[in-house]
Each structure stands twice: as C-alpha cells, then as structure tokens.
Specification:
This protein has 334 residues and is mainly α. It has a single domain, classed as Up-down Bundle (Rhopdopsin 7-helix transmembrane proteins). It has ten helices and two strands, in the order ααααββαααααα. Strands 1-2 form a two-stranded antiparallel sheet. This is G-protein coupled receptor 157. Orphan receptor that promotes neuronal differentiation of radial glial progenitors (RGPs). The activity of this receptor is mediated by a G(q)-protein that activates a phosphatidylinositol-calcium second messenger. One of its GO terms (cellular component) is ciliary membrane. It is found in: Cell projection, Cilium membrane. One of its GO terms (biological process) is radial glial cell differentiation.
Length: 334
C-alpha cells in the first residue's frame, strides 16, 4: 500500500469559492423543495423522486459547508460527524440520481403501469436510503472516517488516509457508485432519447398538418436537449473528484493542483444548484410560477399605497394556462 501523499493546503480564495458553491447548492435544493410544497399539481411521481434527491443534496451541501469552514487539522468528533453525514448524503444522491433515470426509462420506454411504479418507489427508498446508511454506519463503527488531509476532498473529512484498507472504503463510500453512475446514466438517457425519437417519427407519419408537426418537433427537441444535459452535467461535475482520487492512489503531486482542487470542490458541492437550474429554472411550468410569485411580491408595496384600498394581485394567465395544459405525469426532464 502506498504511503499517503503530503496534505493539500487550502488557500482562502479556494475555500471561499467552495463555500459559495455549497451555499448556492443549498439554495437551489431548497428552492426545489419549496416548489414541491407550494404547488401540489406539480407533484408528479418523477418530481417526487426529485424531492428526495434535493433533500440528499441539501444535506450534502450543508455538511460540506461545515467541513470546508472548519478546515480540520486532524480527526475529531465533529470531523467524524461531518464525514459521516456527507458520506451518507453524497452516496444517497448518487442512488437517487440513477433512480430518476431508471424511473423515466421504465415509464417512457417500458410503459410501466401504476401498480408497478408504486412498488418501484418503495424499492428506490430502500436502496437509496438504506444502502448508504448501512455503509456509513459500518464505516463509523470500524473507525474508517476521519481526517484525509484534503487529498481526496477539499477541506472536509472523509476516509482516513492512514487506514490500511482506505481504497476499499473509498470505493464503498462513494467512488464505486460514482463510477457506476458514469456508465448507467448515459446508457439510460440514450435509450430514452432513442425511444422518443422513434415515437416522434412514427407520430409524424399520421400528422399531415405541417404546423402541428413543427410544434411537436419543437417540444421534442427541447426535451431531447435536457435529456442530453442530465448525464453530461453530472459527469462534468463529478469527474474531478474521480481524477483526484486516481492521482491520490498514484501518489502524484498533481493532486494538489489549485485548478483541480477548485473544480473538485465545485463539482462535489454544486449538484443541488445544477438540478435547480435544469428542473426549476429551465422548466417552463415551474419558471412561470416562480416569476409570478416574484412579481406579486414586488407589486405588494404599490398595492398598499394611500391612493386606494389594496387590491389582490391578478392571477397570472400564463401560470393558469401552464397549469391547465400540464399533463398529470409531467417528467422532470421535459
């Protein structure tokens, strides 16, 4: 077993960037949870899975924030606690991300019925919460979580680099599931997009009206672009931690490169923010309602002016039309 590399020192600018990424990720995850709580008509099964992913990302961002802020110099009780929470939340986030992709595949490609999807949701809960919990409890009980000198993290605690079987526990507490997600997500979303394209071509054969065909093609292209972005963004965010993991195992001094450290810090902590951008800000039904709420909040001071009694804000026609046109099974990828 190779001896641990020298510790990676974090400069204040690197720490500030990672803390900002944690805060934005927590804000994005909180916004996704808020949209689920505010608008019941948007609570499709797929968005319910997105809610649980957001909760995992929120816990992950909060634990990472504490770890980077503390800048641990050795193993302590709060280092172990932070490492356990981030290990559980981060691993759970991997499982929920794959669960959403698997649910969309079964719903769109395999056309799974309600009873089957209902039992599938229970299986997702058991696996996505249960497996990370068992792994985390075992790691804490065996004293594998501790100070890692920031060689495989960016200031937070994870697997103690002095443990003899540290590579095995790094794989079990994150890296194995991370690398499996690199393969699983692109395959599932490729199959989903392929199925959508086939269905689109078959539908066009029965759509002689050009305007209807163009409208359908426009909506399909938007869905296709988002389906491509989901695995692409996941890999772009997470690949830097995998690179530093490999460099640490090789004993390479490149693991302490400031660019890699910052990219690793942002990639591990910004998953909640990326999900918020894709599934809230880039989803028309949610974006319209968020803008409507912001406009109502901004118009309240003028409505309470002395010129007349306060008037209730008029409902947004765009929001109503979006709500009336939304299908019951709206996917978070459309």
């Amino acid at each position: 077993m190779l001896s641990p590399a020298p510790p990676t020192e974090l400069v204040p600018s690197e720490r500030a960037v990672v803390l900002l990424s944690c805060a934005l990720s927590a804000l994005g995850s909180g916004l996704l949870v808020a949209t689920h709580a505010l608008w019941p008509d948007l609570r499709s099964r797929a968005r319910r899975l997105l809610l649980f992913l957001s909760l995992a990302d929120l816990l992950s961002a909060a634990s990472y924030f504490y770890g980077v802020l503390q800048d641990f110099a050795g193993t302590s009780w709060d280092c172990v606690l932070q490492g356990a929470l981030s290990t559980f939340a981060n691993t759970s986030s991997f499982f929920w991300t794959v669960a959403i992709a698997l649910y969309l595949y079964l719903s769109i490609v395999r056309a799974a019925r309600e009873p089957r999807t209902g039992s599938l949701l229970w299986a997702f809960h058991v696996v996505s919460w249960g497996v990370p919990l068992v792994i985390t409890v075992a790691a804490v009980a065996l004293k594998k979580i501790g100070y890692d000198a920031s060689d495989v993290s960016v200031g937070w605690c994870w697997i103690d680099l002095e443990a003899e079987d540290r590579v095995l526990w790094m794989l079990l507490t994150g890296k194995l599931w991370e690398m499996l997600a690199y393969v699983t997500l692109p395959v599932l979303y490729f199959l989903i997009r392929k199925h959508i394209n086939r269905a689109h071509e078959a539908l066009l054969e029965y759509r002689p009206i050009l305007s209807e065909a163009h409208r359908l093609q426009r909506h399909t292209s938007v869905a296709d672009k988002k389906l491509i972005l989901i695995p692409l963004i996941f890999i772009c965010l997470r690949v830097w931690s995998t690179v530093r993991f490999v460099l640490t195992l090789c004993g390479s001094p490149a693991v302490r490169s400031p660019v890699l450290v910052v990219l690793h810090g942002i990639g591990n902590t910004f998953q909640g923010g990326a999900n918020c951008i894709m599934f809230a800000l880039c989803t028309q039904a949610v974006r319209t309602r968020l803008f409507s709420v912001c406009c109502c909040c901004c118009s309240q001071p003028s409505a309470e002016s002395p010129a007349g009694p306060p008037r209730p804000p008029a409902p947004s026609k765009t929001g109503e039309s979006q709500g009336s046109r939304r299908a019951p099974d709206e996917r978070p990828s459309t």
